[in-house]
Design goal:
heterodimer, A: alpha+beta, Glutaredoxin, 4-stranded mixed β-sheet, 9 helices, 4 strands, B: alpha/beta, 8-stranded mixed β-sheet, 13 helices, 8 strands
């Protein structure tokens, strides 16, 4: 009777078990490959956005240097930069939590941070020269520990950005290894024990702040919405 | 934590994909051997057959079942029907008494509650070469018996299982079950090719009578005696085949609680029977049942429960994030994020593609099952996505309950088993 069953598992059958194993491995490799392919596409998208951001900032800078004394109305291109910056911020945040290796995300984030600082400096210069009142928020958060206050602060800032499209929000990962960022942290004396921290129009606020609290510190922020039009005319 | 979870996911999903690929390869190897007969066939000889119909409170459906048996295209003097009333509390016994006028039918009463007792009562009174049973909520296709009997031309074949089809699905749940049953045909036929069938279903599986002489009668087996007898046959090297064109129409639960109870019983039975026959696991001498069928059953149970936990963690993370968001900026029904519909934020992690591959393989099996038993025709239908959605949500729940029951009632069942063995020492093989 038992020879009957043993007939069911001839060498041939073991071969089949191995073939199926190889096919399954192949399917898994395909899944991995597809995942890699699409993730790389995403990274490419982010690189493209950064390149565009970089060009835009460089262009604004150049334009400003060329025409600084002549005209303050030439920096119209600045407005959509705000959207691009926040779009990029969301994508970086997403890639940090979703990509297999954080290396690429970190690399992108370093570059993005430099762009943010450059844009911030340029905006400050424009504000000074042209007497504009563009508002900005520097936001320092941490990824080194589980910071729920930071997550909440992120939601508040996203909401603020929706409410005031012209508001520039620059977010910085406190733990990012970048000398330019270290300098910024030093200038504003940000401490890692008091995160999240905000610099709202040069004024430092530590800990979680609600929309209302930020709006209070930033009374001019409401004006920014209509500011470009009145300024330009 | 996340990485442990990740590794577990890959192991479980690898095994699940492996099982599906194995079945698909088997299908491509053997698809030419699948026979679907549309017309009436004639057998060279018509061996004697007894069909046992166990009834418990089935006064409403039993006559339909008997009628369909009487309409089977099989010589009347070669087919006997034994109806056993298993301590019904309704008018089943009265209904049955009217049947005795028919010379093909004999009726019995079995006071000891339990389907296995009713079946054994029938077996005791059977003298035919072949014996099968039919649940009193099922009916058979007129050609089904001949089609099944044609498989017994092979002397090694000791039992043949039919294709069970959901009868007249009416609501969404029943359509979903129809899709599930169609997938089961595929699985069953593939297991038949591999020699690894693990259940000879209550509705209309036919056995050589010698099976019961060799390995003993039905046992109380966690309310799933049709699984136990199949495992016992496998253990003893008795071949079970599947006849895809022998259609049996069975009633299906029409509500979630009923379906839930049925599935908890089935899966509980599977786990307990698999535990009772654990010596079969990974032992090449028992063939496919131990190497493939039983392990893949365990994999699908583990996988589905894993899916439940996976979904729960995802849900928990989502809710936790939403709570934080509402604490920060107030509650937004529409989610309030700017990037809800941006393709960029669609997940491209490997597990997404693995899940897609797994679903494709399952649907391929389902379609093969449909093609196999209905022949040509339209196979894709809206019931497939409905089945996938409903079962993805409900299956983990009944699986978890069945596993829980199987673990907690360990002691009680063991004592039952012992009592049974003491009462029936002959069957202790």
């Amino acid at each position: 009777m038992e020879t009957n069953i043993e007939k069911n598992l001839k060498k041939n059958d073991w071969f089949k078990y191995i073939v199926v194993f190889v096919i399954t491995l192949g399917l898994f490799a395909t899944a991995g490959g597809l995942s890699n392919f699409f993730t790389n596409k995403k990274i490419q998208t982010m690189r493209d956005i950064q390149d565009k951001l970089s060009t835009d900032i460089l262009s604004s800078e150049t334009q400003f240097t060329l025409l600084s004394e002549l005209s303050c109305s030439q920096n119209d291109g600045q407005e959509n930069l705000s959207d691009e910056l926040s779009d990029m911020a969301q994508k970086i945040e997403y890639s940090e939590s979703n990509f297999k290796t954080n290396e690429t995300a970190t690399e992108l984030k370093r570059y993005y941070t430099i762009l943010e600082i450059k844009d911030y400096l340029l905006m400050k210069k424009i504000n000074e020269r042209c007497g504009q009142k563009r508002s900005s928020i520097l936001y320092f958060y941490t990824t080194a520990e589980n910071c729920t206050e930071c997550t909440k602060q992120g939601f508040v800032l996203t909401e603020l950005r929706k409410k005031y499209p012209d508001l520039r929000v620059y977010s910085f990962d406190y733990n990012l290894d970048l000398s330019a960022l270290r300098a910024l942290i030093k200038i504003y004396k940000i401490e890692d024990t008091k995160l999240p921290a905000l610099i709202v129009n040069e004024k430092k606020v530590t800990g979680f702040s609600t929309i209302e609290e930020i709006e209070k510190i930033l009374p001019k922020v409401k004006a920014t919405k209509v500011l470009p039009k009145t300024q330009n005319n | 934590m996340a990485s442990v979870f990740g590794i577990l996911f890959y192991i479980v999903s690898f095994l699940a994909v492996y099982v599906q690929v194995f079945l698909l390869v088997t299908f491509f190897e053997n698809r030419k051997k699948i026979i679907i007969r549309k017309d009436a066939i004639t057998l060279n000889e018509y061996p004697t057959v007894t069909i046992i119909v166990p009834c418990y409170n089935e006064e409403k459906t039993v006559l339909n079942t008997i009628d369909s048996l009487l309409e089977l295209d099989y010589p009347k003097d070669r087919l006997e029907i034994i109806v056993v009333d298993n301590a019904s509390k309704d008018g089943t016994w009265n209904v049955l008494q009217n049947l005795e006028k028919n010379s093909q039918i004999r009726i019995f009463q079995e006071k000891k509650v339990g389907k296995h007792n009713a079946l054994n009562k029938g077996l005791e009174n059977t003298q035919t070469e072949f014996v099968g049973c039919l649940d009193a909520d099922s009916t058979v296709h007129p050609e089904s018996l001949k089609r099944i009997m044609s498989y017994f031309v092979n002397e090694d074949t000791m039992a043949v299982a039919p294709s069970i089809v959901v009868r007249n699905p009416k609501n969404i749940l029943q359509y979903a079950q129809r899709a599930e049953y169609d997938m089961a045909h595929y699985n069953k036929k593939m297991l038949a090719f591999l020699g690894g069938i693990h259940v000879t279903p209550g509705p209309f599986s036919i056995f050589r009578k010698t099976v019961f002489d060799k390995i003993g009668i039905y046992r109380k087996a966690h309310h799933t005696e049709d699984q136990e007898i199949a495992l016992r046959m496998q253990k003893n090297g008795l071949k079970i085949d599947h006849c895809p064109d022998a259609y049996v129409y069975t009633g299906s639960p029409n509500s979630i609680p009923k379906l839930y109870r049925q599935r908890v019983r089935w899966i509980y039975g599977f786990i307990r029977n698999a535990f009772d026959y654990r010596e079969l696991f990974f032992r090449p001498k028992y063939g496919t049942i131990g190497i493939f069928t039983l392990p893949s059953g365990i994999i699908s149970i583990t996988g589905t429960i894993f899916l439940l936990f996976f979904s729960f963690t995802r849900l928990y993370e989502y809710v936790a994030k939403k709570v934080l968001e509402s604490q920060a900026v107030g509650f937004h029904i529409l989610g309030g994020n700017l990037f809800s519909f941006n393709l960029f934020f669609l997940s491209t992690k490997a597990f997404v593609f693995i899940s897609i591959i797994l679903y494709i393989l399952v649907v391929a099996g389902l379609l093969n099952g449909r093609k196999m038993i209905y022949g040509r025709g339209k196979y894709t239908s809206w019931d497939i996505p409905v089945f996938l959605v409903i079962y993805s949500v409900l299956a983990p729940i009944w699986l978890l309950k069945a596993v829980y029951n199987a673990i907690t009632s360990h002691e009680a069942s063991w004592s039952n088993e012992r009592d049974y063995l003491i009462e029936n020492p002959v069957q202790n093989k």
